[in-house]
Amino acid sequence: MQLGKEEARRISEMTLSEKLGQMFVTGFPAEEMDESFRALVKDKKVGNVILFKDNLKNAEQIVGLSRDIRALIYGETGEYPLITVDEEGGVVSRLPESMGKMPSAMALSALHEPDEIYQAARMSGKQLCALGMNFNLAPVLDVNSNAANPVIGIRSYGRNPQDAWFYASQAMRGYLDAGVMCSGKHFPGHGDVTSDSHLELPVSAKSLDELRQTELVPFEQAIRAHIPAVTIAHVVYSQLDDVPATMSRKIVTDLLRTELGFDGLIISDCMEMNAISTTYGIEEGVIRAVLAGIELIFISHKHDKVRSAMDALEQAVEQGRVPMEMIDAAVARILHYKREYARTEPIMDAEVFRACGSLAENLFEKTIYAEKPFKLGGNPCFISPCQTQVSQVSNASGTLCFAREMQKHFGGSCVELPLKPDAQAAAEAVEAAKGASSVVVGTLNATVYKGQMDILEELEKLGVPMACVTFRNPFELDRLSDSVYKLTAWEYSKRSVERAEEFFTK
Predict the structure, then answer these.
(1) Residue 7, pLDDT score
(2) Which fold, 17-361?
(3) pLDDT at 396 over 60
(4) Which element (helix H / strand E) includes 83?
(5) Angle, alpha carbons 383-400-272 (nearest 5°)
(6) Quick check: 339 pLDDT over 60?
(7) Mean pLDDT, rounded, for 71-90
(8) Of 53, 42, 33, 34, which is closest to residue 307 (Cα–Cα)?
């Protein structure tokens, strides 16, 4: 990237501490900025923010908060902030339900209507811009090639690389046309792992040739389409390097920057995730991430860790471990994208908010569909786990239980399962279904939590009329016989449960 005159001038005026402040992103745990965050901006010149569900109440509050953030950071740093958010839709959505939450990536791709994906992203992007959020950490470019993946699943646009890119490209185009910056994630691909990087350090044994055939395909295409940013995965690709991609110069600089020719902004996933924090430590992880070629660092929650990481990075620069040229190049890219995306003021745009909510509702109803209802009979048995946060990136868990809600609506009996049912729980579920007029099972990632899959298989053997409703990943439906009534609900939420109820009758 050619260094613009304005960026060059600003960098020449900045102290090392001010430069590092531009490279970090953090958040705060409330609907208003707390003193700890304010002090961090004033003391360390942190120049960017990430917002989560706890920050966001309604349109008026969000617009006001965005204005306050912009005023504080601009006043302390002379630059407007990148205000980031994970607004993928579906199970990863930070906005209030009332704001219009789009369905998940896989739910939309299942409609086979690329223009609807484009319109969903464009309208979501317009809403984010109006609210003051200028950087959406989406779309997911991962190919969900492993049904046992606990963290990607329906966040992906497809189970093969062509679908994943084709549909993700519509979302990317929609975000950019709306004026919001976006980032493809998680390079070089997080779809074929069996562990969650929020909780531990996943390892992929795929060779570079294997990655080229599957995982890398959407990223290569996105780079050709000029995606502005790419997020790096906290995954060890053991045939490429012995450290996580986040810390691997072979992956970040040699593969992504040099070989694939990506000229945009390279960002980290959150450095507080266990894949980094419990293995290498946040401070060392940050230094090695910058050395690998990552330019924008996320430490989303812990302000003490932001301070210690910034201090460690500053010391590494002063001691010559991290070249100043790398810092200047990173800041130049950040400032370049701030000039393009961060200058737009938030505004209360009721028409945009209304239109986004209307579109989200219409698309949601289309994604949960069956041609005919399932007849329950006079004594149905309903079985399901309760709503559970299966991944830390997903929306927060609650007390919702599909089986219990169905029993309230239709009568019959109810069995509440644990997320990981053991043999005793399976036996109790099967026993409860004996003699029922029908059995309706709600599942939550049964291909990941095998005990649920075992129950499904045992219930089929009973010969009782059976329905299966999947909340989140739908892959278990492929393993059930054609005699089972199948309904894909995509997410475990009040709206999905209420929508599912519409396809059952006495």
Answers:
(1) 82
(2) TIM Barrel (3.20.20)
(3) no
(4) strand 82-85
(5) 115
(6) yes
(7) 97
(8) 42
Tens of pLDDT, residue by residue over 230-257, are 999 999 999 999 999 999 999 999 999 9
DSSP β-ladder status, 380-385 and 438-443: parallel
Under the banding of pLDDT at 50, 70 and 90, the label for residue 194 is confident
Q: Where are the alpha helices (DSSP H) in 422-491?
A: 423-433, 450-461
Domain boundaries, the chain: 17-361, 368-505
Residues with Cβ within 8 Å of 51's Cβ and at least 6 positions away in sequence, in order, are 27, 65, 83, 84, 85, 94, 133
What per-residue string of b and e applies to 358-377 under the rule 16 or more CB within 10 Å gives b?
A: ebbeebbeebbebeeebebe
Instruction: Fill in the amino acid letter for 249.
Output: R
Helix (H) or strand (E) holding 182: strand 181-187
The answer, yes or no, to whether residue 397 has pLDDT greater than 80, is no
Q: For residue range 404-453, what is the model confidence (pLDDT) as tens digits?
A: 999 999 999 999 999 999 999 999 999 999 999 999 999 999 999 999 99
In the chain, the amino acid numbered 372 is: K
From the candidates 186, 190, 198, 303, give the one annotated as an active-site residue: 198
For the chain, how far is it from start to end, CA to CA, in angstroms? 64
Distance of CA 396 to the CA centre of its chain: 13
| Matching CATH number, 368-505, of 3.40.50.1700, 1.10.390.10, 3.40.50.980, 2.130.10.10 | 3.40.50.1700
Q: Is 430 helix (H, G, I), strand (E, B) or coil?
A: helix
Q: Confirm whether 241 is a catalytic residue.
A: no
* Cα dihedral 393/331/135/283 (nearest 10): 10
% of residues, the chain, pLDDT over 90: 90
DSSP string, 11-48: HHH--HHHHHHHTEEE--SSSS--HHHHHHHHHH---E
Average pLDDT, the chain: 95
Token digits of residue 14: 């900045």
pLDDT tens-place string over residues 16-41? 999 999 999 999 999 999 999 999 99
* Active-site residue flag, 190: no
Catalytic residue selected from 269, 303, 336, 454: 269
Matching fold, domains 17-361 and 368-505: no
